[in-house]
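ok here's the first one, seq then struct tokens
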Amino acid sequence: MTSHHPPSSRRPALVIRQEERAGAATDLERSVELLRAVADGTVVQPRVVRVYTPEPTVAMSRRESRLPGFETARRASADRGFAPVVRPTGGRAVAYDETCIVFDVVVREDAGAIDQALFFREVGGALAAAMRGLGVDARVGDVPGEYCPGEFSVNARGAVKLIGTSQRAVRGARLLSGMLPLEGVDRFTDVLLVVNAALELDWDPSTFGTLATEVPHMPREMVESALIAALAGG
């Protein structure tokens, strides 16, 4: 794991570019560890940004873990080579693998000082601006029928979802996590079709977008750097 501090930022941040592959469950555990470390002051920076390359994962929410079809959804995920996990943030099922970038941004928060919707809007706007800087017609807003629907998703052309985000707060800090696909999405739509069917949740697989469709052959490192700059406030 490597880290550095952006040399010029009005909001100093600790940036972690996780290089090792840790596994689906461990990756999500690290998100919670960062959240608690910022909350209790172990990490002194008021904002932490982490990006990493994930293992094939279907991340479902705690709410979904209580639905009658959850065990069926877990088995379907595993059968298709995706580790089924329950993520610490909200939302609905999302699928990703090593062709995606997953990110966390954790901010210190004094007793309810950060409004959840405002934080979604702030980060969504920054991410959309970063995507536009890469040449994407990116906007903030949900696409009807998208996976893990949310009004602060980042979409392309108003037609496909590119980035979804979800949150969790503890006393003293707030975590926002998200994912951006870079290549093909057929594998993701395949597994989400069976997962959402098991959970009895509707969605339209044609709304699952990827950067490769919008801006082909964009180097991964360039995309990571753009996301980090946006999330770190630089």
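and now the second one, same deal
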Amino acid sequence: MTLADLLSELKALHADSALVFEANGEPIGAGYHVTELRHSESTGIDCGGTVERWSEARLQLLDGAGDAHMRVGKFVGILEQSLTRLPALADGSVMVEFAPKNVGLQLMELGQPIARDKSVFITLRATAAVCKPAHRAQSSGAATIGCCEGTTAMGACCAPAADGMQRDACCA
């Protein structure tokens, strides 16, 4: 999901609804704070040697200890002002930085906003490291790919071969 997608979905909902983010099955603290919206262009190389470039946006939330959750309209205003001042935020995939009780910052994915009762809920889902070549192979239904030959287990391609030697093209 991009911030532009999130903004569009939230604008279709009632502005006076409480916006409740949920992490690990629990709502984050009322009175949470949007501490930062950040855009970056990234370039990386995976363990199979594939170079990729992507744009990403980060939404950082500070856990709160207030009386009420932010209203959808206020959050929409924050997004609109931020996108006006930093338009590149709109199109990158968005990740959320959040730490329950503000300890142990985690990188999380946004779920879809869901209106329920007089609130809008957005689930923050935990992320995990993956072996991209194995993930691509698994997603396409292929049995092998590069260093991940013969396995669909995430991360197995970087294990040493039976003779203790590193596999060819593995863990570039």
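notes on #2: The chain is about 20% helix and 30% strand. The two ends are 29 Å apart (CA to CA).
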